Write a sequence for this structure.
């Protein structure tokens, strides 16, 4: 049982503050790595996930990108930290949480792109003008900040 599952066993569906980290990964052509996620169904986002106990935000994003996509990311640059009431979520199972998301851009990446079938349907590098329509709202804000900095 992981950290979040242990917390949920204690507090049920009550609101939690969950910290996560994501990475905007661009190839040499400036195309962005987009992840078609299993949940929420049909939605796209950027790779990342929730922090484990004792991890830094940088360690979180490196671990999550490797687990989800098989890529190692380096030269991380902070885009922004996203938090507040607009980041309140109620999951389908009734779990409530406020997400605090630390977003980075990856200066470099290496490895072979692999899809973790537990979390993803596929990955695609997409040009900024050709991003999918169904992007997670919070990830859309991150991408907007990335493109306008």
């Amino acid at each position: 049982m992981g950290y979040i599952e242990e917390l949920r066993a204690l507090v049920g569906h009550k609101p939690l503050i969950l910290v996560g980290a994501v990475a905007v990964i661009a190839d040499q052509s400036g195309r962005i790595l987009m992840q078609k996620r299993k949940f929420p169904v049909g939605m796209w986002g950027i790779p990342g996930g929730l922090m484990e106990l004792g991890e830094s935000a940088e360690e979180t994003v490196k671990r999550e990108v490797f687990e989800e996509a098989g890529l190692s990311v380096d030269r991380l640059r902070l885009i922004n930290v996203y938090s507040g009431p607009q980041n309140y979520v109620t999951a389908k199972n009734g779990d409530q949480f406020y997400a605090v998301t630390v977003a980075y851009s990856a200066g470099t990446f290496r490895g072979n792109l692999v899809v973790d079938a537990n979390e993803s349907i596929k990955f695609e590098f997409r040009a900024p003008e050709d991003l999918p329509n169904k992007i997670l709202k919070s990830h859309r804000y991150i991408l907007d900040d990335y493109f306008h900095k």
Q: What stands out?
A: The chain has one domain: 3-144.
